[in-house]
Amino acid sequence: MSTSNKVEGTAEARAGANFALIKYWGKADARLNVPAVGSISITLDALWSETKVVLDPKLTADEFSLNGRTRSEEQGKVSACLDLLRARAKVKTRARITSRNNFPTGAGLASSASGFAALVTAGAGALGLDLSPRESSIAARQGSGSAARSVFGGFVEMHAGTAPDGLDSFAEPLLDAAAWPLEVVIAVTATGEKEVGSSSGMTRSAKSSPYYPAWVENQPADLATARAAIEARDFAALADIAEHNCLKMHAAAIAAQPPLVYWNGATVECLHAVRKLRAAGVPVFFTIDAGPQVKAVCTPGARSQVEAALRSVPGVLELLTSRLGPGAELF
Ligand code: PMV
Description:
Layout: E1 10-22, E2 27-29, E3 34-35, E4 39-55, E5 63-66, E6 69-70, H1 72-89, E7 95-101, H2 111-127, H3 133-143, H4 147-150, E8 155-158, E9 171-175, E10 183-188, H5 198-208, H6 212-231, H7 235-254, H8 265-279, E11 284-287, E12 294-298, H9 303-311, E13 318-323, E14 329-330
Parallel strand pairs: 5-7
Antiparallel strand pairs: 1-4, 1-14, 2-3, 4-7, 4-8, 5-6, 8-9, 10-12, 10-13, 11-12
Helix pairs in contact: 1-2, 1-3, 2-3, 6-7
This protein binds (3R)-3-hydroxy-3-methyl-5-(phosphonooxy)pentanoic acid (PMV).
C-alpha cells in the first residue's frame, strides 16, 4: 500500500485518569519510553480526558489544543504519538486534535495518562486502525508511561518488559472495577502545574539519588505483594504495600540532587490524617504522585468519614471523589 495524503476521518474518545498504587518511577529506555519498573494502578471514572482527532488533508502540521487553548509545549509529543499510528496506517494526513480534561491539568492528577490514552484511541479510530488493547497500550506508553494503563479499566498492571523494541512493555487488566469497587477521595492542596514534570524527575532520580537502585531492585517484590492483595481483595495488605511503595518512590526523589520535594505542608498533614483514620479502623490508605495532591483510597462505606477528615486539614483547597471506572472508549 502506498502512503496516502488524502485520508479524512474523525473520532472521539474518552479515557479515565489512573493512579498508581505501585509506582512507575524511572525509565529503562527514554527514547521508547520503556519504564525501568512495572507498576499497578486503578483507573478512575470521574476524572477523564476527552479527545477528538480530525484528519484534515489541508493541514501542513498537526494542531493541538487543550481545554480550548493551543498548547505548543505538548504539540511535539502529541504529534510523535500520532505519527506511530500514521506510520502503521500508512497515512501522512495531519490532524486537528482537541482535548479537554474535566480536572486540573499537570498538577499531579494523571492528566497525561488519560490524555494520551484518549489520543491513541481517538487517533486509531480516525485512521481506521483496528488496534488490539495491547497495541493501544504500547502506543499510549510512548506518549506517557502511565497512559499505557489508562487504556484499561479497574485494577491494571503495567509490565516493564525487557525487549529492546519495547513490544513487551504494555499494561494488562488485573481486575474489573465492579469486582472490587473501591473509591478515591483526592485532596487538592495546590493548584497550578508542577515545577518538575515526572519525566525529568525520573531522570534526575536515576542519575543522582543513592536510593534509586534500591527502589528498582525492590519493585518486583512490591508488585507481587500488591497483585496477591488485589486477587484476594485484601484491603489491609493492599494499604500497607501501596503506602510503603509510595513513600519509597518519594524517598528516592527527595534524595536526588537537586532534591525533588513534591509535597507541601498540607500533603504531609493529609498523610497523617489518613494514617490516623486507618489506625482507628477505617479502611483507607494514601498515595501521592509527582505533585502535592493526596489520593485517599477507601471502601465505599468509609468515603464520608474520609471526606470529613481531609476537609478539616488546613491547606486542603478542594476534594474530588471518584469510583473506579472503565478503560478508554470511543464515543
Ligand atoms: O506517565 P508519566 O510520565 O506522567 O509518569 C507517572 C509517574 C507517577 O505518576 C509519579 C507514578 C505513576 O506510576 O503514575
